[in-house]
Design brief:
Enolase-like, domain 1; TIM Barrel; 2 domains; three-stranded antiparallel sheet; 21% strand; globular
Length: 366
């Protein structure tokens, strides 16, 4: 089962409105899709949605690395040698975790199809049959944030994340409005590294009465001392996200004891296997994790659902809800997330097939 071709596409999909967080506002999401083909006729697909600033590369840069550096070195190699192929990618582009993740997704999709089993079987097998999801509320005025919380609650979501970082009073009022509108829902807040330690502590104290589940990345990614100070000063957990981008950064956070929870993403960790490895590393240190991208499509979401299916070290509500924000997708049967949970896939591979007509319709135009 040798790889005979690796095709890739650059796409851009409009979002359902404007979404504002600590890394700015966006109205579209650029991404890279990849399809690996073998001589036996089998195919596997992957998709990532990089954002420069949050990560190291734009979607365009990721696509160039995948197309020009990684794909040529993998053609002709056995498609079932995933570890060996990952080693080759490490040598050619060790910094390009997003491009590596897209290819590894496609390899697991292909191998699952070859064996007739879902991708989670290749990761050790599911420990649950349902993955619960976390809703997402941007930097909205209080009344709009409250309505969003009501909508999520009605749909069946038991947890939401609220973006913060545009002033302590504005953030406080947004969180208070959400809590009043949905008193039973769990609330997470996320600053996307946009605050300093003192402001983070001030905000945390202003909203502590609203029963907050966690405070995600309150300070810049390299300010581990600041994050530790926040953790020691507030009365709910701190979660590291942007501070985690490779095994060394995870070990630095663990050693510094600056986070109660660690967030992982298949795209950021460089694939499903490495994401699971990161989750297990955190578990060995006694740290819980959550998983999820903010602005992805069906294939990216399914990849994280498969990882969530096999891990016992994750918070209940996963954050892989990107498709909720998109006006389209690049697969034939897009995933449905509106109920606040998704069943663990049982179809072979990741569980979706690329739609070339959609790839053409959403082709990146610069």
């Amino acid at each position: 089962m040798k790889i005979i071709a690796i095709d890739s596409w650059l796409h851009s999909i409009p979002m359902r409105g404007a979404f504002r967080g600590g890394h700015g506002e966006r109205t579209r999401q650029d991404g890279v899709a990849v399809r690996i083909r073998t001589g036996s006729g089998l195919e596997g697909a992957g998709n990532v949605d990089p954002n420069k600033g949050y990560g190291s590369f734009s979607a365009q840069e990721c696509h160039e690395i995948l197309r020009d550096r990684l794909a040529p070195a993998l053609i002709g190699r056995p498609a079932d040698s995933i570890r060996a192929l990952t080693g080759t990618m490490d040598k050619l582009a060790p910094e390009a975790c997003e491009a590596q993740a897209a290819i590894e997704m496609a390899l697991l999709d292909l191998n699952g199809k070859a064996l007739g089993v879902p991708a989670h079987r290749l990761l050790g097998g599911a420990v649950r049959d349902t993955v619960y999801l976390n809703g997402w509320i941007g930097m909205l005025p209080p009344e709009e944030a409250a309505q969003a919380a009501r909508d999520f609650s009605i749909q069946g979501f038991r947890s939401v994340k609220i973006k913060v970082g545009d002033g302590v009073e504005a953030d406080r009022d947004r969180v208070a409005a959400v809590r009043e509108a949905a008193p039973q829902i769990a609330i997470r807040i996320d600053a996307n590294e946009s605050l300093q330690a003192d402001t983070s502590i001030e905000l945390a104290k202003a909203i502590s009465r609203h029963d907050i589940t966690l405070f995600e990345q309150p300070v810049p990614r390299d300010d581990l001392d600041g994050m530790k100070r926040v953790r020691q000063a507030i009365d709910f957990p701190v979660m590291a996200d942007e501070s985690i981008y490779d095994p060394a950064s995870m070990m630095a956070v663990i050693k510094k004891e600056c986070a109660d929870i660690i967030k992982v993403k298949v795209m950021k960790q460089g694939g499903l296997l490495r994401t699971l490895q990161a989750i297990e590393t955190a578990a060995a240190a006694g740290i819980r994790c959550t998983i999820g991208h903010g602005f992805g499509l069906t294939l990216h979401t399914l990849a994280e659902v498969h990882v969530a299916a096999v891990s016992t070290n994750l918070l209940e509500a996963c954050e892989c809800v990107g498709p909720l924000k998109m006006t389209g997708d690049i697969v034939e049967d897009p995933i449905v997330l509106a109920g606040g949970s998704v069943p663990v896939p049982t179809a072979p591979g990741l569980g979706a097939t690329l739609d070339e007509a959609a790839l053409a319709r959403f082709a990146f135009a610069g």
